[in-house]
Amino acid sequence: MATLLLATWNRGKIEEFGELLRPLGLHVVGLDQHPEVTLPPETGATFEENARLKAISAAQLAGLPALADDSGLCVDYLGGAPGVLSARFGGEGLTDRQKCTLLLERLAAATDAERGASFHCTLALALPSGEARCVHGETRGRILRDLRGTSGFGYDPLFLVPELGRTYAELSPAEKHQISHRGRAAAQLPDLLEAWPAIRTAGVR
């Protein structure tokens, strides 16, 4: 089984991608197993710019193919915020619960019709040479007024998937993978791997 470095320390993401990519014969490891890797600041204005920054840096420092995810919640009422700042919403050091509480405060005046939102994910796969390619995934939903569910992480307890009538945090991992922004982006990786001879030469298939 080929090893793929996931450019994150987030245990939730490492576990989620491990499950998503296992069917492709990929063993996912996080940055906790590669202390030599220091990621650059996320200075990009878009998810793709940040994903490329992280993937290329991690691949070059570790000397093996790396996958970086940059994802976030884009809320219509907030003009697309927190967007690329989702992980740092409200400042560094806030817990997931605190970020959810802050989001609810910002949406206190929003009607149900104004609480539309989308989760977006860009995955960048990079080689130590610096070459990188990206895929994207998105899921539309609505922000609730209270947290529901205990699974997942981040804003999952607030993000309702209308067609299911449940939040991300109320779904099993298998159910979430089928409809989530990460699941939809990861579903495009087999075609990317197949169409990119250099990545196959690097040992990722």
- Category by helix and strand content: alpha/beta
Rg over CA atoms: 17 Å
Strand order of the largest sheet: 2-1-3-4-5-6-7
Helix and strand run? EHEHEHEEEEHHHH
Please report the distance between the alpha carbons of the first and last residues. 9 Å
DSSP strand tally? 7
Q: If helices are DSSP runs of H or I spanning 4 or more residues, what is the number of helices?
A: 7
**Biggest β-sheet strands, sense, barrel:** 7 strands, mixed
Shape summary = globular
Please state roughly what percent of the residues sit in beta strands, choosing from under 5%, 5-15%, 15-25%, 25-35%, 35-45% or over 45%: 15-25%
| Helix-residue proportion | 25-40%
- pLDDT < 50 runs, ≥5 residues: none
**What is the mean pLDDT?**
91
Q: What is the compact description of this entry?
A:
The protein is α/β, with parallel strands linked by helices and 205 residues long.
Descriptive report:
The protein starts with a strand and ends with a helix. The relative contact order is 0.16. The protein contains 7 helices and 7 strands. A 7-stranded mixed β-sheet has the order 2-1-3-4-5-6-7. By secondary structure, the chain is of the alpha/beta class. Helices cover 31% and strands 23% of the residues. A hairpin with a 4-residue loop joins strand 6 and strand 7 (166-167).
Which key terms come to mind for this protein?
about 200 residues, seven-stranded mixed sheet, 7 helices, about 25% strand
Q: What order do the helices and strands come in, and which of them pair?
A:
Blueprint: E1 2-6, H1 11-21, E2 26-29, H2 47-62, E3 66-75, H3 96-106, E4 116-126, E5 132-143, E6 159-161, E7 166-167, H4 173-179, H5 181-186, H6 189-195, H7 197-201
